[in-house]
Amino acid sequence: MQATKYRDISLKCGIFLLKLVGLWMSMNSVEERRRRFTLFGSVFALSYGVYVNVNDILHSFDDLSHCIFLTCNTLCILLAIFKIFILSNHRTEFKEIVLYAQKHFWHDNYSKEERVLYGDCQRFCKLWVILICFLTQASLVFYFVTPLTANMSRNKSDRVLPFKMWVDWPLSDTPYYELMFTFQALCVYQIGAAYICSDTFFCMLNMHVICQFRILNYRLLNMWPVIDERTNMTEYTNKCYTKLIDCIKNHQSLIEFCVKLENVYTLTILGHIVVFSLLMCFDTYEVVLAKVPTTTRLIFLFHMIGSFIHIIFFTYSCGGLIEESMDIATATYAGMWTVLPMNKVGKMIRGNMKLMTVRSLQPCCITAGGFFPVSLKTATALMSSTMSYFTLMRERSAE
User: Fold this and answer.
1) How far, in Å, CA of 57 to CA of 160, rounded?
2) What distance in Å separates the CA atoms of residue 143 and residue 263, rounded to the nearest whole number?
3) With contact defined as beta carbons under 8 Å apart, do 134 and 241 qualify?
4) Which of 39, 133, 230, 364 has the most beta carbons within 10 angstroms of its beta carbon?
């Protein structure tokens, strides 16, 4: 499970984020101590973020825009804490998922045609990782650009920090200001990594499962050799039966993998969906209606764009899993099973194909806490609820 074994940059990036937060698996006692120390640091940074933002809210009830800014920060941090708690609670299942993917997904043992499908998956994952990391980085940078811009018109005794500390300490003086600024910057980046690491890796796992279903679909369609006058139908049937058994085993293992993936991530998905509309509503309010500095507006602009792209990629990968798992039924039925002789092996092939077709009609899916399957329809419903919340906030603020 070492990151150096993976050639794909998207996998390396996803593993790096999980290691940075302390959620990646350890293989020995040294790595386990390092993981626990990193996880403790992440929890400390998240707890500090909740304390600072909630404390500032309690002192800023007269400023609606600033309260929304702080509330949005708090929701993101609480969501990150929830995701860390869920993944930590499912560490054993998560390790099984990663080990299975390492053995059966992340390798070069594919045919020429299958490498094309795997290459498409890798390109999609790279695009996903580049976009999510860039937008997260852009949003976090403006948390520090905002106070630095404000300090240009202030003297050194009145400098502001990225997040106000309601304590009676000389935080505007050197070196306390520089130390606190650096400490808050480190906490913000740790919070950002904790916020995106779970979903980033989940989407990549989802896309790799989709790729495996596409490869299985290809194998089912191409497991039937060309028949001519010299074909021995008995040998032909036996070869087809052997290939079909391999496809059935692959199909069963993919279904089991999806079940484990669902068990690990279903609650994190539910938490993100519950909070998403509210976060997007707050982002839109800060970008469109709030009277805030341009740098603060840019924080929410990048966060809004990132959240929108995130939910589109997220629901697309979940919806793709439903479609590709159901397409196995079509690929199974489209085979040349009708020309096989009605001997013992031929009847076994027909019976196995019937069972495989029936099982494929029940799609593999990722649900939100078991309440409903996630697909692109989920994204449209969330965007609709976001606009409803924003319209309500706009009307209330206009009164």
Assistant:
1) 17
2) 35
3) no
4) 364
The two three-digit tokens of residue 17, written as one number: 């984020």
Please state, in angstroms and rounded to a whole number, the distance separating the CA atoms of residues 122 and 112: 15
Residue 235 CB contacts under 8 Å (≥ 6 apart), including other chains: none
Please name the amino acid found at residue 374: V
Tell me how crowded residue 178 is: count the other CB atoms within 10 A of its CB: 11
Q: Give the whole-angstrom CA distance, residue 11 versus residue 6.
A: 7
Q: Are 357 and 335 in contact (CB under 8 A)?
A: no
CA dist 324 to 212, 234, 254, 330, Å? 9, 32, 12, 10
Is the Cβ–Cβ distance between 321 and 210 less than 8 Å? yes
DSSP assignment of 246-297 equals: HHHHHHHHHHHHHHHHHHHHHHHHHHHHHHHHHHHHHHHHHHHT----HHHH
Report whether 1 contacts 99 (CB < 8 A).
yes
Residue count of the chain = 399
386 with 326: CB under 8 angstroms? no
Omega before 175 cis (within 30°)? Answer: yes
Distance CA 99, CA 87 (A): 16
Phi, psi of 373 (to 5 degrees): -70, 145
Q: Two tokens at 162? A: 């990225």
Cα distance between residue 393 and residue 283, in whole Å = 12
- Reported as a single tens digit per residue, the pLDDT across 94-140 is 999 999 998 888 887 888 888 999 988 999 999 888 888 888 888 88
Pairwise CA distance, residues 248 & 255, whole Å? 11
Distance between CA atoms of 31 and 212, rounded to whole angstroms? 31
Report how far apart, in Å, the C-alpha atoms of 9 and of each of 6, 22, 125, 192, 309 are. Answer: 8, 20, 9, 20, 20
Query: Could you report the per-residue pLDDT of 267-288, keeping only the tens digit for each?
Result: 999 888 888 888 888 888 888 8
d(CA 397, CA 399) in angstroms, rounded, equals: 6
